Amino acid sequence: MALALLIIFLGVVIIGIPVGISMGFLTVSAFTFADGNLIIIPQKMFSGIDNFTYLCIPLFILASEIMTNCGLTKSLVHMCEAFVGHIKGGLAQVNVLGSMLFAGISGSATADATGLGKVEIDIMTEAGFKRDYSAAVTAASAIIGPIIPPSNIMIIYAVAAGNVSVSSMFLGGLLPGILLGLMEMALCYYFAIRHHHPVRPKHASLREILHTMRKAGPVLGLPIIIMGGIVSGAFTATESSAIAVFYAIVVSMIRKKITWKSFYRCCVSTAKTTANVMIIIAIASAMGWAITVLRIPQNMVEFCMQYVSDKFVFLLFVNILLLILGCVLDQAPALLIMVPVLLPIAMKYGIDPVHFGILMCFNLTVGLITPPIGMTLFVTANVAQIKLTDIFRTILPFVVIAIVTLFIITYVPVITTFLPTLFG
């Protein structure tokens, strides 16, 4: 029965029914077949979101909205152009580096693609890059957003796992995010040589570099404050999200970039985004209870322990499973469904829960740019005003690079565990 329900669920998702509705349909079906009391569903939905840690999500989103809507993040592009604009690849390198820095503010691939994406794509196109390539670089670099802290999906994983702190996840995601960015910059360098992409003729002067750093300094201060406070123990990850909002408001007021009207728009946008995330979390919580009642996690544990004798084979199985699942489901519901199923098995094999969490988050993030369903591809194509099919071919090399990076962090766990261990 569990397999039949899963097939029905995937079928409903593939035909275009929203994920949240599909999950609700599966949950009600599971309760009906198991003769469960349907009153449990709203109870589980409420208890699923009644968690103090989830307060991070709307606050980090609001801080990002304030920085973006007040035009403060554009200074990042100019600073990156001064630093790496002369390297082969030129503005493509700027695009990736800008996303790596913006990731420390937004924690979202969609925010990156819509916030910096329009500016980056237009600048690259005006400089002589093909628009589909510009869009592909923007989409590929945008997925660094959920990996480099702060990250909404890492917060969701930490809550779903139960025995993992948000701070450990943030620290664990830093080096994998930087590694992915460097790999993408190397690919842009290769394409620049092969296709003779335009490049800045000379290095920026020291005066120009210092000027751009001064302009971008307040924006860069936000991720430094977040990670510095968490690492030093001055405040928790949840408290850091409130400090991030306060900092964004103060910087915007000093720069005279915010009004009551713009602040209201930021709050409305934050409310809409948060509502979308929280309704999925609520439904997934009820769905997770139904999955447990159907003994799906227990059956998977028994199967793996019987037929998979090596943790490296198990990790390969998980990677393949999540790469497929990430092409169909959004990150939040995929995590809430799969963490209760896969984490107990990983613990049986002695896999570090932080390493496994980063692996899951990274894996599902790759699905955001995997054709034909990758959500970030839809967003970027809309921002670039090009056909979705135009971006499919140019994005494939970046998908391959992301998968290569995924397998590196899978089988070299020290990349994810070094910083959490170092800072205790």
Task: Describe the structure concisely.
Helices cover 78% and strands 0% of the residues. The chain contains 21 helices and no strands.
- Oligomeric state of this protein: single chain
Number of helices: 21
> Which stretches are low in confidence, meaning pLDDT under 50 for 5 or more residues running?
none
**What is the percentage of strand-forming residues?**
under 5%
Provide the structure class: mainly alpha
Distance between the termini: 44 Å
Number of separate domains: 1
Q: What share of residues is helical?
A: over 70%
| Overall residue-averaged pLDDT value | 82
Structure in words:
By secondary structure, this protein is mostly helical. It has one domain (2-422). Helix content is 78%, strand content 0%. The chain contains 21 helices and no strands. α6 (91-106) runs antiparallel to α8 (117-127), α14 (260-293) crosses α17 (331-348) and α18 runs antiparallel to α20 (388-411). It starts with a helix and ends with a helix. The model has no long low-confidence stretch (mean pLDDT 82).
